[in-house]
Specification:
Strand content: 25-35%
Number of strands: 12
Distance between the termini: 24 Å
Shape: globular
Strand order of the largest sheet: 3-2-1-6-9-11-12
Oligomer: single chain
Largest sheet: 7 strands, parallel
Number of helices: 6
Structural class: alpha/beta
Order of helices and strands: HEHEHEEEHEEEHEEEHE
Helix content: 25-40%
């Protein structure tokens, strides 16, 4: 059975996540500062960062920081805070994030709805994720179709705070139209 025909559909999702991560590379600044949110999508982007890109990479994802630590062409910073072993992340200090300037933040959300915006399932993450968005000159939201239309318990940003939303072709066309009407440039891959 191929990766795209698994019974659970995870192969299709994995392929969609790969397309989203590759598309996100077009949003990278030259020799700037990027922030990678936690999760498999951030790990994919980290693995695709081009050699010699000279970026400063800030992340709250322990696996991302460890995966990039040996790269001499990058400056990698793990945002400090309480460690969530289950998620492999740190809940970064809001005070620290308020002092940062980031060219582009690559964010994920547990749910993305036109009405409420970007939401997460853990209220403890809200303040740090909100500060990540505010620290960034540009915010790129990475959201596969399973996250679009969802609404979780805690909102950390509104759609007008997002510059670009990258999603996959599995997203309902009506949802794409509604999302475009809320502000971000929407790229479907």
């Amino acid at each position: 059975m191929s990766a795209t025909t698994t019974p659970s559909g995870t192969g299709r999702l994995s392929a969609a996540e790969g397309r989203i991560a590759r598309a996100a590379l077009a949003e990278l600044p030259r020799n700037g500062v990027v922030m990678l949110d936690a999760g498999p999508m951030a790990e994919r982007i980290a693995g695709l960062l081009p050699a010699g890109c000279g970026l400063n990479v800030l992340t709250n994802a322990v696996p991302v920081a460890l995966g990039l630590a040996s790269r001499r062409d990058l400056s990698v910073h793990l945002l400090g805070g309480r460690v969530s072993a289950a998620a492999g992340t740190t809940l970064a200090s809001v005070r620290l994030l308020e002092q940062l300037h980031v060219d582009v933040a690559f964010m994920v959300a547990d749910g993305v709805s036109p009405e409420r915006g970007l939401t997460c399932a853990d209220p403890a993450e809200v303040m740090a994720r909100r500060a990540m968005v505010r620290a960034s000159a540009r915010t790129v939201l990475l959201a596969d179709h399973t996250r679009i239309g969802g609404d979780r318990i805690a909102r950390f940003a509104r759609l007008h705070e997002v510059d670009c939303l990258i999603t996959d072709a599995g997203t309902d066309p009506d949802d794409i139209r509604r999302l475009r009407g809320r502000g971000p440039r929407v790229l479907v891959v």
